[in-house]
Amino acid sequence: MRRAQTLRTWLEYLRQTERLATIEKQVSLQYELAAVTKKLDGVKAAFFKQVEDYSIPVVSGICSTREQFAEAMETDPYDVIRRFTEAVASPLPCKQVGNDEALVKENIIREDIDLMRLLPIPVHHEKDAGNYLTAALFIVRDPVTRKQNVSIHRLQVTGKNRLGALLLPRHTYHLYKQAESAGRALECAIVIGVDPLTLLASQASTPFGVDELEIAGALRGEPLEVVRCETVDIDVPAFAEIVLEGKILPHVREPEGPFGEFPKYYGPRSDKEVVEIMAITHRHQPIFYTIVPAGYEHLLLGGIPREASLLQSIKQTVPGVKAVHMSLGGTCRYHAIVSILKRNEGEGKNAILAALANSFDIKHVVVVDEDVDIFNMEEVEWAIATRFQAERDLVVVHGAQGSKLDPSTDEGVGSKLGFDCTIPLDSEPMRYLRIKIPQYDGINLEDYL
Which positions fall inside the 3-octaprenyl-4-hydroxybenzoate carboxy-lyase-like N-terminal domain (predicted)? Predict the structure, then answer.
């Protein structure tokens, strides 16, 4: 069995490799759970056995380093983007199983749905409007093509069986608006507690009509097993921990937010779409999974799929592109570092323009030669310091669409910058020759100390 076959097999792998912290002390849903998780960010996953008076444990931080996502794929960190790109290009159809094989069907609740009574849903940040689902796959189906769409949305508990949902203008929103214009609700399934690869697949940048669960199957190297929901026409991972079945109500909007988002600022309060939950299914002794917003897990989950998309976009313009990195300091959204093998003058600037065109979120782009380690920010800063001159190497674009969650923009409109830190092809050889100490790589300090 693969180490990331299910959430439970992955947690066992983390436990065996001493990267799962088990917290026996009772913790509060309000801030304390998020605070402890944040203290462990990038070091260990946090498994809370006693959350207030709930019988359900909570886990967070299950993949908070690039290396852990590589381990889930059973490859090395430098191969992650290639593997992800291949999975997006060659999705693997899911395998349908019956209720008797699907552990998520071990318990079925159809009556008296009370989300906060049943589930330990946390409050993460000081000014958050309430309890939020932050790590749930949100699955809807196109009634025409029968293809599903999978994404993750912030979901605020606003009533016993109601959630306020932030739906950005992408695939789920498109299907919802189609249904709403016909006066219909859009059925949905909200899936809590899946393996890291299925989570990662949900964030893939794909054309409309691609089922991200099939990308998850390609990442795993075998079809993802799915089962049909009880009350809605949606297929969900058969070994998920918890599934909420519901519908997005037509012509209903209710206040949602504020909520602490990935830029480490709050998304504002406004009227949003509303989900009504009609049924819950779950495994015996289910595990609730949450992501602390703006933590490493949150940032990397969005950053790695964006890197795959960015690499393909730049390659169409600059075939010599070697690698890309959406940095943590740029929230894995706003800053892109690009490595290229430059064969022609001007390719550095072309790479900048291609990167900016890939996503409106991208705000600053740094392009370097392939001798610079783009995952080492000290190296990147060194390249800016010693290979960049603003007069010839700076690209500035004003009045461009950016992220509305970036508080420095004017309602999402702002400026973009590109730094071409590539060496001029006609430079004198010694001018940019990096210093090197012979024998350095072969030195073992234990032989000397």
Answer: 11-87
